[in-house]
Amino acid sequence: MKQSQLFMPTLREVPADSEVKSHQLLLKAGYIRPVTAGMFAYLPLAKRVLNKIEAIIREEMDAVQANEMLVPEVLPAELWERSGRYATYGQDLYKFKNRQSRDFILGPTHEETFTELFGNDIKSYKKLPLLAYQIQAKFRDEGRPRFGLLRTREFIMKDAYSFSADQAGLDAAFTKMEGAYVKIFDRIGVDYRVIVGDAGAMGGSDSKEFSAPAAAGEDTIVYSDQSEYAANLEMAKDDYTRVNKDDQELAEMEKLATPTAKTIDELAALLDEDPANLVKTIMVVTPDQDLVAVVTTGDFEVNLVKVQNHLGYSDVELADENQVREAVGAGFGSLGPVGLPESVKLLVDERAADLVNFAAGANEDGQHFLNVNWGRDVVLEDDQVADFRTAREGDPAVDGKGQLQFTKGIEIGHIFKLGTKYSKALGAQVLDENGRNTDIIMGSYGIGVSRLLAAIAEQKSDENGLVWPAAVAPFDVHLVPVNVKDDDQMKITAELEEALTGQGLEVLVDDRKERAGVKFADADLIGLPIRITVGKKAGEGIVEVSVRADQLSFEMRLSEVTDSIAVLLNGQSETM
């Protein structure tokens, strides 16, 4: 393609409202343009990258016998009302009415749609298992879209769904899709980790995230420095063994006035005690407006995701102090597990549950209890105790190998075992081998296609611009004649273009009447894998070949170019 005919509006200055590297580079290099907050136009270069990403996805989905489909982006609200998500999804859901005043939404994801379609037409276990997917725009009304393509209100996603008659079928589909995702991301050339993830609003049980390490990532990846263990911070666990405390002597509980101790640090200083030997109590509120007291040791933070998963809710929030004071009789800084009203459920982190003779808030402003003990002062059942803490960097990994390390990451894929969450709600059943109706067992598998543009740009770039992996670069070769008025240069450029395209390569020819410096700067900025510069030695049959990723340049005779370019591109694919 001739660059003079390509819509590629590059910028010389970084836009003031672009905060992260990928946003800056994709704007500067003419890949994207904002249309409104959180919604972008994908210009020709970006669309070519998206096409290649989607082609890789389709090939690997074909390899696991997945059916490609396309369902509406506009969905009837009653479908989501039946699953319960119309009420619980939150403000991110785009809602509107048609001219008949019927409620509709813009689909943020399509579990309900696929469940309804397959549930209506699949009635026997003999028709299962099945895999289906689509690549489509999704919509979420983000309260604060930011970081370019990383958090948007409209985005492109590959969503897939598995339908099985039993748990074994779901397990097999989950494993198959995990393997397909590994191949997809390997082929694309993005660096990633497979980590334990949270199912969140999707529901279900087992969940794995594919996260691309990057400074701009909003997620925290927690991993062991000596093993394969990795998890999202929301799900990460440290290595802890419960303590047998039966042989420890219990001291008498007493109340102490602590008017100046409203934080753990202040209480630890007042008592000259390690925060690890104290407890703090955080109040959360469920979607049903029930209060839950969560107790951890003073040196840890409460992990709300672990709490909500334990309770079986899609979300919990920190409680309002006025609500807490009305229910308990005290405000923040004086809360504790002793004497809680029956209306407040109690959860205790396992580390806190192993403490003996510890200090805790007395549920009376400015007062704490000393020498509190479980069983004697607070009744505690086994189902109230679990890991409710947020993992810390440097602590032992849960597998006992190495220490936990933190890095930022971008979620580029997520796979879930949904089970019967949606099939039960929507009545999607099949007859099993005994002729009895049974709920279809489902899995859900997503890839953020447009987000991958940003993730790759975050990882594969330098001070001069983008550095696309060969498998998804918008063009394979950038052919740059230095002087378009030089007959020798243009003759050789035409010959090279014909030879390379004849090999099946995609070639961008910079035929613009621009200075050499402008052409080279733009070439570095848009980041194609190979640049061939046709310059002063064109008359001698010599050109310069540059490899963008390595920043290596060398002269080459025309007779060597076609064979060498293919080798160089293959080498780029293998090293990405």
Describe the structure.
The protein is of the alpha+beta class and 576 residues long. The chain has 3 domains: 19-189 and 421-458, 2-Layer Sandwich (BirA Bifunctional Protein, domain 2); 254-386, YbaK protein (Alpha-Beta Complex); 466-575, Rossmann fold (3-Layer(aba) Sandwich), CATH 3.40.50.800. Helices cover 28% and strands 27% of the residues. The protein is built from 15 helices and 31 strands. The strands form 8 sheets. Strands 3, 7, 8, 9, 10, 11, 12, 21 and 24 form a 9-stranded mixed sheet that branches. It has a 5-stranded mixed sheet with strand order 16-14-15-17-20. A 5-stranded mixed sheet has the order 28-27-29-30-31, with helices on both faces. Strand 27, helix 13 and strand 28 (507-509) form a beta-alpha-beta unit. Helix 1 (21-28) packs across helix 12 (449-459). The radius of gyration is 29 Å and the shape is globular.
Any key phrases for this structure?
aminoacyl-trna synthetase; nine-stranded mixed beta sheet; Anticodon-bd_dom_sf; Rossmann fold; BirA Bifunctional Protein, domain 2; proline-tRNA ligase activity; nucleotide-binding; five-stranded mixed beta sheet; alpha+beta; 576 residues; 3 domains; globular; aminoacyl-tRNA deacylase activity; YbaK protein; 15 helices
Compute the number of structural domains: 3
Please give the largest β-sheet. Answer: 9 strands, mixed
Give the low-confidence spans.
Answer: none
So, CATH architecture of the largest domain? 2-Layer Sandwich
Please tell me how large the radius of gyration is.
Answer: 29 Å
